[in-house]
Design brief:
This protein has a single domain, classed as Four Helix Bundle (Hemerythrin (Met), subunit A), CATH 1.20.120.910. The chain has helices spanning about 10-40, 45-75, 90-95, 105-110. Helix 1 (about 10-40) runs antiparallel to helix 2. It is mostly helical. The two termini are about 30 Å apart. It is elongated. The structure holds zinc ion (ZN). Zinc ion binds near residues 81, 86 and 104.
Length: about 110
């Protein structure tokens, strides 16, 4: 398989998705800084720190996904399913800009 698979997405669409992914990533990174600052200043916040743990866990899951999506944009592989090398549905990318698998592959995982 020597052929390099490139997805025929409009360049404008990819540029928009890149901005969306970067914005989301920045939001997570900023929230992480905020939660660290709160945690550092007050360890006994009960419910609040539970919520912050939840946010931190979500960040741990989301940040690598967003970084991966940005990497794929750089490589020109954005929109290509990392499992079957098929095209990820554009509708799916609009809903989840950081999607790296197509609908069929996600379904078969469940
Ligand atoms: Zn797939």
């Amino acid at each position: 398989m020597a052929e390099t698979s490139t997805r025929n997405l409009p360049l404008g669409f990819i540029a928009e998705q890149k901005i969306r992914i970067q914005t989301e990533l920045n939001a997570y990174v900023n929230r992480e800084k905020i939660s660290e600052a709160i945690k550092g200043s007050d360890e006994e916040t009960g419910l609040e720190s539970e919520y912050l743990d939840y946010v931190a866990q979500k960040q741990k899951k989301m940040v690598p996904k967003l970084e991966k999506a940005l990497e794929l944009i750089k490589k020109g592989e954005y929109g290509i399913c990392q499992k079957c090398r098929g095209n990820i549905e554009m509708q799916r990318l609009i809903i989840i800009p950081s999607a790296t698998e197509c609908c069929n592959c996600i379904k078969s995982l469940k």
